[in-house]
Write a structure and sequence with these properties.
Blueprint: H1 2-8, H2 11-30, H3 42-57, E1 69-70, E2 77-78, H4 80-92, H5 96-123, H6 129-144, H7 147-153, H8 159-176, H9 183-193, H10 200-214, H11 216-220, H12 224-247, H13 253-258, H14 264-280, H15 284-289, H16 292-305, H17 310-316, H18 335-347, H19 352-364, H20 367-370, H21 385-404, H22 414-446, H23 455-465, H24 484-504
Antiparallel strand pairs: 1-2
Helix pairs in contact: 1-6, 2-5, 2-6, 3-4, 3-5, 3-24, 4-5, 5-6, 5-7, 5-8, 6-21, 8-9, 8-10, 9-12, 10-19, 18-21, 19-21
Length: about 500
């Protein structure tokens, strides 16, 4: 194991390994990108259409000029992903591949930033360079093959971009403690992240606040001009989003609609009856327990804690669009190594502030989902992933270091240890191959309805028969929810084709 560490500290070898990890990550995210998942869901279609519309007119679907927030399906999506999709739509046209490609780029970038963040977090904080390097490579590799990250790197879901931006925030913040001008890069991505996804508007400010508190002494020791510059950059980038939220009364409708507090009737019906009985029976304890504030607190705590449920993480997942069928969000084989790595991290000789950052990040990540009624939720809690991967990597490293150690005291039963390592690697490879089959083969069969499969086919059929009818009526109710967006893209592309034909003729 010591020889392995020495290899990883060789610069040429390190660059080669990191390149291979990135190539693997890119291949897993690009393969059959336009066909798996089988169909774009309505949010992907909406983001793609708005990218196309802004590209050609400077306005979104509803005519808003260069919006910071997209009205879309009255869910008021942060607009940054659509802007990221403009170059790919310009090059590849309004296709599923073009709309999903920015997420692929962000996913691969996330692997790279994961490597540098882990290295910076552990190498510069009182830990050995060799261990930090191996841990960084292991974490990046696990990110490259992570079912959770692959799932959202292959679809136009904004959460993947938000995760990568948060990794950049953490990296540039830590770098900024040594090179203060980099703090402005950290606040730049923090400000941009507020225009990426609703959950980031909760998590990112909490992450920045946590890191400021942890490294307060180091920050105040820096030149004030760098701190002021960083704050100004963050405010300038955040300004368009803040202005929209303040000036548009409907801007928070999505947050309000998914909030746990919007479910008052369902949640409090029984509570009202119980509270009345408590008062009639002069039950003082009952009036406290059945108080709506207590009820909401209990629901939020339960919603928070369920995101640490191994059953959700490793076996079942939640919405079918959030994971491969028959799997959770992480590989089942990683479960024991997660627990071992967590133990090793808690009781290991790591810098105290490194521990604070890792645990703060992990414990803050479920908060955006905990205040909603759809829990557990893989999209809103994807920021948990990097810290979980660090623990899993530590678990593998500690186990392999023990099993492969060539110290004199460990020579006994060395053959058995090699067999155990081979068994572990076999199950890890089997789990990975099983995942590839579930995702690339089985998903399109089992989860097709969840991806709105049939919308595009219905539109193609309508295109063929529309000349036979004066009017064709299409329902906008389940299972044709938000189907108008698919028609809008069809008519846009038809108009573009007609215009091109007319000009060439």
């Amino acid at each position: 194991m010591q020889n392995l560490k020495s290899y990883f500290t060789n610069k040429k070898f390190s660059v080669s390994v990191l390149t291979l990890i990135l190539v693997l990550g890119l291949a897993l995210r690009l393969w059959q990108l336009g066909n798996v998942p089988i169909s774009p869901d309505w949010d992907e279609v909406a983001l793609g259409y708005d990218a196309y519309s802004i590209l050609h007119t400077g306005r979104d679907e509803f005519g808003a000029f260069m919006p910071a927030v997209l009205r879309s399906f009255d869910d008021y999506k942060p607009a940054l992903y659509s802007y990221l999709a403009i170059p790919t739509v310009a090059v590849f046209g309004l296709t599923v591949y073009a709309v999903r490609l920015p997420s692929v780029v962000m996913g691969v970038l996330g692997i790279l930033v994961m490597y540098f963040l882990v290295k910076e977090l552990f190498e510069s904080r009182g830990n050995t360079r060799k261990y930090a390097e191996v841990l960084a490579f292991g974490s990046a590799f696990l990110m490259a093959i992570s079912p959770w990250q692959i799932q959202f790197s292959r679809i136009a879901f904004e959460t993947n971009t938000g995760l990568t931006f948060n990794l950049l925030i953490g990296l540039f913040f830590l770098k900024g403690l040594k090179k203060p001008w980099m703090l402005s890069l950290s606040t730049l991505f923090a400000g941009l992240n507020l225009a990426v996804y609703q959950s980031e508007r909760v998590f990112t400010p909490l992450l920045v606040l946590a890191m400021v508190i942890i490294y307060w002494k180091e920050l105040i020791a820096l030149s004030k001009k760098y701190l002021i510059s960083a704050v100004i950059v963050g405010l300038i980038v955040t300004l368009p989003t803040l202005i929209f939220i303040v000036t548009n009364a409907s801007s928070l409708e999505r947050a309000e609609g998914t909030s746990l507090f919007s479910q008052q009737t369902q949640l409090l019906t029984t509570t009202v009856t119980n509270l009345k009985d408590d008062k009639d029976n002069h039950d003082f304890i009952g009036t406290i327990i059945d108080n709506r504030r207590v009820i909401y607190t209990k629901e939020i705590i339960a919603a928070y804690l369920i995101h640490f449920d191994p059953n959700w993480l490793f076996l079942e997942g939640d919405n079918a669009r959030h994971h491969a069928p028959g799997m959770g969000l992480l590989y089942l084989v990683d479960l024991p190594f997660l627990l071992i790595g967590l133990y090793f991290f808690i009781f290991g000789k790591f810098d105290k502030k490194t521990k604070y950052v890792v645990f703060s990040w992990l414990l803050l990540a479920p908060i955006p989902a905990a205040i909603t009624f759809e829990v557990p939720h893989a999209v809103r809690t994807m920021n948990m992933l990097p810290m979980l991967l660090i623990f899993i990597t530590m678990g593998y490293l500690s186990v392999f270091n023990y099993l492969l150690s060539n110290h004199e005291s460990s020579v006994k039963n060395y053959g058995l240890r090699i067999v155990i390592v081979c068994i572990i690697l076999f199950f890890a490879c089997f789990n990975f191959v099983y995942y590839l089959n579930q995702y690339f083969v089985q998903q399109n069969y089992y989860n097709a309805p969840d991806w709105q499969y049939g919308y595009s086919q219905a539109i193609a059929q309508i295109e063929q028969i529309q000349g036979n009818y004066q009017k064709i009526v299409v329902s906008d109710k389940t299972p044709m929810d938000e189907s108008y967006m698919f028609f809008l893209i069809l008519f846009t592309l038809l108009a573009s084709t007609i215009s091109t034909t007319y000009r060439s003729g």
